[in-house]
Amino acid sequence: MITKEIFDKMQGELGQFQENKQVYLIDRYKDNKKNTVLTYFRLFKLFKGMEEVLGKDIYSFNDEEIIDAISRIPTFSKRMVNSIGSLLDNYIEWACQRGLNPTRRNPMQHIKVKTHLEQMINTTVLAQRFISKKNLYDMREEIEKNSDKDIDITAQDFLPIILPFYGIYGKECSEISNLRIEDIDRFKNLATVRDDFGNERIVEIDEQLVDLIIEADEQKEYKKRENWIHKLTKNGYVLKSTKGDGRLNVNGIRIRFSKVLKLYNKSQDEISRLTMKSVISSGKYARLRKLEQVKGELTDQDFRDMQVEFGDNPKSYFGLKEDYYFAYKDKVE
Questions:
Q1: pTM for this prediction
Q2: Which phi and psi angles does 181 have, rounded to 5°?
């Protein structure tokens, strides 16, 4: 349950019109999960600047002002677009019913919002958020070839950005942290992955990834800073921490992921906006594309199965299906 006390901790984040939105969220979503309500809170924050410029709450915006406001949001997700449209529609309607909007008019019900919202999706940003397997592997060579300094991206650096593409990640990256060399079947190209919560899966990989995993496991040194080289001890874990002899934790994984991405962006004319989530999505869509080429047409069950293959909830397949057809289908290899 959400309470006013939670929002009081965020006082001022929505500017001078925060109170109305707090009352609305508590009134309408008080029995929802905390994360759901905070998601809507963050969406409201997108309009803070426009509200301050016009000096009024967004429920008082006219048609032109609403269209201008939503056009300024650089989104790349159809689901986010739908969430924004639904949130504004419900909030303005709530304000009208409470007499907060003197015009009692909801522009969201008088303009072709869905069509307009979809037009605001930033396809340039969208294209920078996912990648093919070939281009993902090529990043290592591109960094070393185009960087100003003599930079060596090791397998220990590179593996955290590759594994999610194959569906190996888990909550808090625990499947990556727990990966051991004996979990790899080099002849069948399979990996047994385990998270920190007792869940175990068999994941299909390929020879290219097997070779990278072996290279990472056999790596004896890790250069953390320019003049500091850490000796790595073989301890069973593929990704090794530079502190002690243990596994690499979630923070270490994210640091290495970010390191590779930053170096890659410095070596390119166009930036990449990859995140671990978008690499995971890239892997899903690449597999779906191959399956579609074989079958000719995908079914809902195919999307459910893909969720299961990646260790995700099959009930959330609809978002996967929507994004695949809307955003990714023609952009993966």
A1: 0.71
A2: -65, -35
